[in-house]
Write a structure and sequence with these properties.
Length: about 375
């Protein structure tokens, strides 16, 4: 089998799909994207095209290693997102060729269903109780919300009280009917993280995500020593090599690699295993589309330490299209009581509505994250 063509589709809400065609008539799909940098990642994919055309797509390991290391410069969000989408598409081809779901090719599943959670509250969090009540009625009991809006490096008593009052309100309203993780989103400085973690401890969030920016990862272990709340991070790591030093430094309870940003399924499996070696749970980051979600689930279903899966249904970023709009076999993704079952169709198990994708790509989105400022005009982390 030989690769004959690569086709890229940049589509709403902020996703990019890659189709890799072969001379056997099998097409594999991947999702090479970095939110807000789809075109840059697309250019990186195109730079791999001349190498890929004519190659046997079954040789995933050899192709991966060459694309990763063959260009001398390696790693980082752009190159590893491009490689992730290519890797996903190659696994999709291999599974379709062998008529097996990819998790079977990786040794088979270790669980029958995977726990997922849903987002509430939006970018600048508010009104979560009402939204969570409605979602609870439809079977969701596990949520993620932003821990706070913009927060200064040294913020006021009032700002801290506002954060705590919001979370206190949620816990006192729902009791133990719900669980929720809080995403600090890199908005919180190390000095404020220490204060907030202490104040939020009584409300027992499942985890606090990105308690500080990833460039301050040395604080994870210090913060973990000062709180009983499990700390999570990893969406801004891009390979097992990035993860290695973070795990060695300690402090994280949950690792959240993005299987569309960190080299795909091949690298995701290795990252999951590295986390397992440190007794760290796996909760892949996935605010993206259906192929990215399927790639995450593939890693989850073969990883004993996978604990939770993010998914983007109804997420505040999904303007213009939602998670399953480009999927033909929507029923395979049914989420019951927050659990999703393995996708059992060959390959990644996602039947893409190609006509809809091609049409949507005629109106590519221009998604960029908001740029925030504090009241004094200074830059604020989003
Ligand atoms: Mg996050």
């Amino acid at each position: 089998m030989k690769i004959t063509a690569l086709r890229l589709y940049h589509v709403a809400p902020r996703w990019q799909f890659l189709a890799i065609d072969t001379d056997e008539g099998i097409t594999g799909w991947g999702e090479p994207v970095l939110e807000g940098r789809a075109e840059t990642v697309g250019a990186a994919v195109k730079e791999c095209e001349s190498y890929l055309i004519g190659k046997n797509p079954m040789n995933i390991n050899a192709i991966w290693q060459t694309l990763y290391a063959g260009g001398f410069y390696r790693g980082g969000p752009i190159l590893m997102s491009a490689l992730a989408g290519i890797d996903q598409a190659l696994w999709d081809i291999k599974g379709k060729y062998l008529s097996q779901p990819v998790f079977e090719l990786l040794g088979g599943k270790v669980r029958d269903k995977m726990k997922t959670y849903t987002w509430v509250g939006g970018d600048d969090p508010q009104d979560e109780v009402k939204q969570m009540e409605a979602l609870l009625q439809s079977g969701w009991d596990t949520f993620k919300l932003n821990g706070c809006g913009r927060l200064k490096m040294l913020d006021s008593n009032r700002a801290i009280n506002q954060v705590v009052a919001r979370i206190e309100k949620i816990r006192s309203h729902f009791g133990d009917r719900v669980d929720f993780g809080l995403d600090f989103h890199g908005r919180v400085s190390a000095p404020m993280a220490k204060v907030l973690l202490k104040e939020l401890e009584p409300y027992r969030p499942l985890f606090v995500e990105e308690p500080v920016l990833p460039e301050f990862a040395e604080y994870y272990s210090k913060l973990a020593d000062s709180t009983s709340i499990p700390l999570a991070a990893g969406e801004r790591t891009f390979s097992r090599f990035d993860v290695k030093s973070i795990l060695q430094a300690g402090g994280l309870s949950i690792l959240q690699p993005d299987i569309s940003h960190a080299g795909g399924i091949s690298e995701g499996v290795k990252i999951a295993s590295l986390a397992d070696c440190h007794n760290v749970g796996l909760a892949p980051h996935c605010p993206l589309g259906p192929i990215a979600l399927s790639a995450c689930l593939t890693v989850d279903f073969i990883s004993p330490n996978a604990v939770l899966q993010e998914q983007s249904m109804g997420i505040h970023y999904n303007k213009g299209a939602d998670l399953f709009d480009y999927v033909v076999n929507k029923e395979d993704f049914a989420i019951t009581d927050g659990y999703i079952r393995p996708l059992t169709k060959p390959g990644l198990g996602v039947v893409i509505d190609e006509a809809r994708v091609i049409d949507a790509a005629r109106r590519p989105p221009h998604w960029h994250n908001p740029v925030w400022h504090h009241e004094d005009g200074g830059f604020a982390e989003w």
